[in-house]
Amino acid sequence: MNNETTTSGAVSIVDRPLGIKKDKRKYKEFTVSNETFRRFQTGRAKFERWSKYLNLQDDIEKSIYDYNIESRGKNIIVLRNEETGALRAIRPRSNNEL
Prior knowledge:
Layout: E1 27-32, H1 34-39, H2 59-70, E2 76-81, E3 87-90
Parallel strand pairs: 1-2
Antiparallel strand pairs: 2-3
């Protein structure tokens, strides 16, 4: 009779360094001008060009575009109006179009 036993020391586990936490936020907040904030009032339709809403020569608006491309459109973009402080969220459409 050969019984094989596994002890906890025999199992390899990849440890994460202590003190480093993953960023679990699914959104990023951008402070934009009043004009850019108003352009997103009705939302952005799927397959609509970002250049219709954003000036890609401006650094702040280009960072919004880059964030969306980097996250493949899965994360929420939160826009803050620099004059009034109002917030607007641009979120991806769900499969059931809600």
